[in-house]
Specification:
Rossmann fold; about 200 residues; 6 helices
Amino acid sequence: MELLLIRHALPERRATDDGTPADPPLSTLGRAQAEAMARWLADEKLDAIYASPMRRARETATPLELALGVEAVLEPGVVEMDHTADSYIPIDQLKREDYPRWQALIQGGELWGGVDMVAFRATVVEALERVVDAHRGARVAVVCHGGVVNAWAGHVLGVVDPFFLDVTYTGVSRFLAASSGERSVMSLNETAHLREIRR
């Protein structure tokens, strides 16, 4: 079967005052990215769509659901590692505004500080293997997060680094899952659909 992992589109920057999860919606640009992705994939036969329950993933999946007439199934096993965080700053914004903090997050490992990365990867792999088992011979899209794409791609490729791949918002990565158990990469981070909205 063919498994498409799609990173969510650009969310808004958001923080809460009461400690509840930020869980931001998509930004205006993010909605345009999601719509461009849906138009690009509209001619592909997708047998199912799954999405992380986080708002930015659900909103990214919506245009694809409408384009294909397929309702997304929520899969809690593909939530991002920051799903309980009370603030969200898009990484590109953080890099522009506070480069030293961005360096600490990315290079110093603070991005996943306090997260059991082995357990996170195991949860992602288990969830995606369930999707694979449920859709033998099909083509399925999973709208998720950069950490999730890295976890699965790292699992398939045998890469230990939890963030070896810089996944673009709405970047599409394709994998093959054979019934014999082999998992392979077809492509990583396809972004051709974003040309139409780049300024």
